[in-house]
Predict the 3D structure of the following.
Amino acid sequence: MSQQAEPRGADETTANTERVFIFDTTLRDGEQCPGATMTFEEKLEVADFLEAMGVDIIEAGFPIASEGDFHAVSEIAKRIKKSVVCGLSRAGENDIDRAGEAVKHAARPRIHTFLSTSPVHRKHKLQKSAEQVLEMVQFQVTRARNWVADVEWSAEDATRTEIDYLCRCVETAIKAGATTINLPDTVGYATPEEYFQMFRTVMEKVPGSEKVIFSVHCHNDLGMAVANSLAGVKAGCRQVECTINGIGERAGNAALEEIVMAIKTRGDALPYHTNIEAMMLNRASKLVAAATSFPVQYNKAIVGRNAFAHESGIHQDGMLKHTQTYEIMTPESVGVSKTSLVMGKHSGRNAFRSKLKEMGYELGENALEDAFNRFKALADRKKHVYDEDLEALVDEEIATAQDRIKVVALQVIAGTMGPQSATLTLDMGGGKHETVHATGNGPVDATFNAIMKLVPHKAKLALYQVHAVTEGTDAQAEVSVRLSDESDAGGRAVTARAADPDTLVASAKAYLSALNKLFAKRGRLHAQMGA
Ligand code: KIV
Ligand code: ZN
């Protein structure tokens, strides 16, 4: 880091910097991680937001993976006009053709085709010789080029591949017509210096390198995904593959918001720019957290709830004297507003609408009306309604908009004089109400048993987490529930969140929302409800 007399002001950018393209894979690598499943509608909403935010390339999914993935990629391809829309494929012809079919209506289509190149993958995963893999590279890129002019080729596990062999693979891909070459750190193993050097060597040795864009794609197993990505950019890569909130396989991918703000804030060390509208980053984080029901860790850089909170006396004193003492970028620059106390029970529809707008939410008329009614109900029960309360309420509104089964009423008997019991009424869809009574080992167990009676299922509770949305004993409880369903081939996990001043109501809503997601995903909702 260079020393300066004065700290650099927040958000400075250096003139005449080079553009780095942002390739967002939230809908593919992000959605692929256990529990982060999104519904079709959620995927469309995320894609629209990514485009509005200035993402250059949206990787919309893996079309051969399922009918649902194919449908989502082709729908996103049809509606997105500015960003490139990309579908992933392995090296087989069916994979490539499926990806080609899915993106063919895009204004700017891309096929991203990948193949493992490292010795360990060649031997154990592909069971192919190095020469066979080279032939496959030639085949996959050529076939993808028959569909589209914009073809990205990735060397899976590039960072554990012999460098000379990696160069031969890249040369083959370029000769076959690849326009972007991505060299991922698939297992999050590389250090920044190694990643930098790998790109430098490939760029220097491979003929035709100057004609293509090199891309970084880093996983966070050792917590170095962002550092490695930026090292790749320094080596000459001009595309960064990343996800909102850093979600992705295992420890996740490089976080988009961290890449963007590192480049924006440290123009002295990173003389590049992106096309991302940084003020939309906080909203993007909230949207993806709500759609995936994957909570954002409190101390997450840029978008965590504590990212701009100053708690210690020394820091608060410094901040009061001059914000640059402890703030290297302003909360406003990523879309975090400073106000906290907002609305009360006398606030009207218009104030509610403009408050949501100020917070970055644009709801359709029906969703707005529902959210407003829920806000009024909340304001009746809670003295102060804070921004965080509104966020929890609207995020839940968005996440549960497609839910068919809903909680109507819940009455719980708890305390030391067991057994604890729950009487639950659900709307089973189309206004059909059913009520049951169940007992359990505690009020949460009784509530979940009641749900099981009305909606029999085989899913197992993999996570149950409660936290308070704001301070105070009247704070809303936000409950996260993850269900895993082993009855499916390959298993499946979904996570859902819900908030309510009553922890048990929030628990019932979160559990049911996870079930709705699970059933919707498997197209089994009607069968379950008819059973
Ligand atoms: O991590 C990885 O190697 C990938 C490839 C499919 C690009 O996600
Ligand atoms: Zn990956």
User: Anything to note?
Assistant: Residues 29, 184, 186, 217, 219, 249 surround zinc ion (ligand 2) (CB under 6 Å). The two ends are 64 Å apart (CA to CA). The chain is about 40% helix and 20% strand. Residues 1-14, 524-531 have pLDDT under 50 and may be disordered.
